[in-house]
Amino acid sequence: MEQHLAAFDAAGIRVVAISVDDPETSRELSRAKGYTFTLLSDPDMKVIGQYDLVDPIDQVSRPAEFLVDAAGIVRWRNFAPSVYVRARPEDLLKAAAGLK
Amino acid sequence: MQRPPINWPILLSLPTAIVALYSYPLVFVRWAATRDVPWVNLLLCTAAVALAVAGIRRSFRRERAWISKALTLIVAAASVAGAGLFVYKVMIVARELPESAAAPAVGQPAPDFTLTDANNQPVSLAALRSTPLAGSRAPRGVLLIFYRGYW
After folding, report:
1. What is the per-residue pLDDT for B151?
2. Is B53 within a domain?
3. Would the CB atoms of B140 and A54 count as touching at under 8 Å?
4. How far apart are CA A61 and CA A45, in angstroms?
């Protein structure tokens, strides 16, 4: 994702990642992977629950992506079929290009 | 009694199964081409099982000490178990994900929220949508990536 950050920025998209990790773990992840985008902490899964993404077995978020426009409307979403499979950046950028 | 030739299929089957199992999370997850459908690892699993079967046939076809045959069976079982573990973990368990039927759909508003960022600062979705990007440009949108976390 970090590799494609410039493309997202050029498309006017702010990239944000959310998980149950606390801020310290997120800092560690960013440091290890060289991430520059925002990582948000949802340890109580309040937001993960709001978006109905709770994985009850592991008590984490299931992997998913939502593209929200400036007015706050969901314009595109993807639910990864497996914990190992993520949305490809190309698909995300194509969805982003569809925003006004 | 002449010493029978080395049963190389059974000797190869277990390392093949181990590579099939561990190379996915360690190596092949890095590229979408081998991650989304783990065909390399599935091929290795098939090879491990085939080698185990060939090893058993080789072992039982010839005059070998019973202990050699017993060991062959044990190694074969371990190889098949290793291959099976990969299929179970990556093809079954990793895909046991919730339905998420109540998730906001396309066209619906994304629920607003406020969460803490990596610097312990509160950040709201409303702010993410409106705070200008570099170059004082208004964002056209926000990409929310929900992920499991970092272990």
Report:
1. 61
2. yes
3. no
4. 8
Judge whether B71 lies within some domain.
Answer: yes
Chains A, B: CB contacts under 8 A, how many?
210
Average of per-residue pLDDT across A61-79: 95
For residue A86, the domain's CATH number is 3.40.30.10
pLDDT at A100: 59
A75 contacts in chain B (CB < 8 Å): 106, 141
Spell out the SS3 assignment of chain B. Answer: CCCCCCCHHHHHHHHHHHHHHHHHHHCHHHCHHHHCCCHHHHHHHHHHHHHHHHHHHHHHHCCCCHHHHHHHHHHHHHHHHHHHHHHHHHHHHHHCCCCCCCCCCCCCECCCCEEEECCCCEEEHHHHHHCCECCCECCCEEEEEECCCCC
Tell me the pLDDT tens digit for each residue of B69-110: 999 999 999 999 999 999 999 888 888 888 899 999 999 999
How many structural domains is chain A composed of?
Answer: 1
**CB distance A53–B101 less than 8 Å?**
no
Residues A7-19: pLDDT tens digits? 999 999 999 999 9
Cβ contact (<8 Å) for A83 and B112? Answer: no
Range of the domain at A88: 2-97
Domain count, chain B: 1
Higher pLDDT, B109 or A33: B109
